[in-house]
UniProtKB/TrEMBL annotation:
Role played: This enzyme is involved in nucleotide metabolism: it produces dUMP, the immediate precursor of thymidine nucleotides and it decreases the intracellular concentration of dUTP so that uracil cannot be incorporated into DNA.
Keyword Cytoplasm part of the UniProt annotation: no
Organism: Kordia antarctica
The name this protein goes by in its record: Deoxyuridine 5'-triphosphate nucleotidohydrolase
EC numbers on record: 3.6.1.23
Pathway connected to this protein: Pyrimidine metabolism; dUMP biosynthesis; dUMP from dCTP (dUTP route): step 2/2
A GO molecular-function descriptor: magnesium ion binding
Ranges of compositional bias, category Gly residues: 134-144
Similarity remark: Belongs to the dUTPase family.
Cofactor(s) demanded: Mg(2+)
One GO BP: dUTP catabolic process
Length: 144
């Protein structure tokens, strides 16, 4: 699939690190570093603008290393970029750690996954089919 992209950053285009990678790293495009204090959040710009085909979305997801090692995650994970959005890709980062974290220019801050999606048409009914699970949710199937 070809996707049109404008790169106004000084960084290389996002790319897959391995043949089996689902996501591509997004990098911060900053004129000066941004420090997130504990529980702070900020929209970090990437300098990237994309044109997705209809039926395709781009999902902005956390990087597992930043989350595990530093407590930094994407606040609205996954963030969705719709096919009709033409603005700059921004990543809402939040610092869930107890220490300040500084985002530097060029730092890998999130990953971008390209995915197909369907459009639903609602069919209003008076009842739904029965299942073994029924209305059980939020851990109702057990822990093991």
């Amino acid at each position: 699939m070809n996707i049109k992209i404008i790169n106004k950053s000084q960084h290389a285009l996002p790319h897959y690190e391995t043949l089996a990678s689902a996501g591509m790293d997004l990098r911060a495009n900053l004129s000066e570093s941004v420090t997130l204090q504990p529980m702070d959040r900020a929209i970090i710009k990437t300098g990237l603008f994309i044109e997705l085909p209809v039926g395709i979305e781009a999902q902005v997801r956390p990087r597992s290393g930043l989350a595990a090692k530093k407590g930094i995650t994407v606040l609205n994970a996954p963030g969705t970029i719709d096919a009709d959005y033409r603005g700059e890709i921004g990543v809402i980062l939040v610092n869930l750690s107890k220490e300040a974290f500084t985002v530097e220019n060029g730092e890998r801050i999130a990953q971008l996954v390209i995915a197909k999606h369907e459009r639903a048409e609602w069919q209003e009914v008076s009842e739904l089919s029965e299942t073994d699970r029924g209305a059980g949710g939020f851990g109702s199937t057990g822990v093991k």
